[in-house]
Amino acid sequence: xxxxxxxxxxxxxxxxxxxxxxxxxxxxxxxxxxxxxxxxxxxxxxxxxxxxxxxxxxxxxxxxxxxxxxxxxxxxxxxxxxxxxxxxxxxxxxxxxxxxxxxxxxxxxxxxxxxxxxxxxxxxxxxxxxx
Length: 131
Known about the structure:
It is a single chain. The chain is mostly helical. Helix content is 92%, strand content 0%. Helix 2 runs antiparallel to helix 3 (121-130). The longest helix has 92 residues, at 2-93. Mean pLDDT is 72; it is low at 120-125.
């Protein structure tokens, strides 16, 4: 029995040390897991922000391109179609005004070809001038 008394404090000391080691290991593992989760969340937030910025830039570029095309086509249509009503009067009124029609036709065709890259306008102009 005398030897048993000496073993009990050592057993308690070893048990306490084992519990401390287990607690330290668990805390370290929890800290590592927390760091990994924080890093993953930060990476996901950065990826989401980058995707949102890219989408916004693409949408802005597309909207600007569409607005530019719409404005150019509207201006071209306004110039050519509104002038067209006056020119049809010139064309129908007298032979001398035919030169005005052809002059306008060439200017309009040049505008369409150079500004809008429309090469078929000459065919439209020819069809309209034959009517």
